[in-house]
From TrEMBL:
SUPFAM superfamilies: Thioredoxin-like. Keywords: Disulfide bond, Membrane, Transmembrane, Transmembrane helix. Residues 45-185 form the Thioredoxin domain. Pfam families: AhpC-TSA. This is TlpA family protein disulfide reductase. The chain crosses the membrane at residues 5-23. GO terms for molecular function: antioxidant activity; oxidoreductase activity. It comes from Paenibacillus anaericanus. CDD domains: TlpA_like_family.
Length: 185
């Protein structure tokens, strides 16, 4: 009986590892090609690829596009109000935004609204945390799917051309964010 349990655990482990390998290899496939005068680069979610553009509403109902911030370094942060690591990370995000916004750095918070108990939780959280950086609402979960967000928070670090330079799963502190930004132009 004990050998059967060990064998079952081993098989489950192999299946999970195979799934991980399959998705990690296929997630780097380009979603489409960029047709830009400056460069032609694959659009995708892996390092070195142009981040997929999107348009979502902010808390005031305005449409915000990722491409609105071209020319700026971006911390594209996926988060939720119920997520404890997100709550810990947010004051650090705000401090980075305050310190670096004059240096063409943007924090763009993407709330995974589809996972919230209520959409009203988001503005209440933003007010409570005194967040002033742009926040958009992923109400349908489409962006979460496009960027393959499987853990909160997840942050993509984009250079001024919109190219992904880093992807961080989990909460970061001020020093970590500052270090990442110092490596990206």
């Amino acid at each position: 009986m004990k050998k059967n349990i060990i064998a079952i655990i081993f098989i489950i482990g192999l299946v999970l590892y195979g799934g991980y390998e399959y998705f990690s290899k296929n997630s780097g496939q380009p979603l489409q090609s960029a047709n830009s005068e400056e460069e032609s680069r694959d659009i995708g979610i892996e390092k070195g690829q142009l981040a997929p553009d999107f348009s979502l509403q902010d808390l005031n109902g305005n449409q915000v596009r990722l491409s609105d911030y071209k020319g700026k370094r971006i911390l594209l942060n996926f988060w939720a109000t119920w997520c404890p690591p997100c709550r810990v990370e947010m004051p650090h995000m705000q401090n980075i935004y305050d310190h670096y916004q004059s240096e063409d750095v943007v924090i763009l918070g993407v709330n995974m609204t589809i996972t919230e108990d209520s959409i009203e939780d988001v503005p209440a959280f933003v007010q409570e945390q005194e967040l002033t950086f742009p926040i958009v609402l992923d109400e349908e979960g489409d962006l979460m799917q496009t960027y393959q967000v499987v853990a909160y928070p997840t942050t993509y670090v984009l250079d001024a051309d919109g190219v992904i330079r880093e992807k961080v799963r989990g909460a970061m502190n001020y020093e970590m964010m500052e270090d990442l930004l110092s490596k990206v132009k």
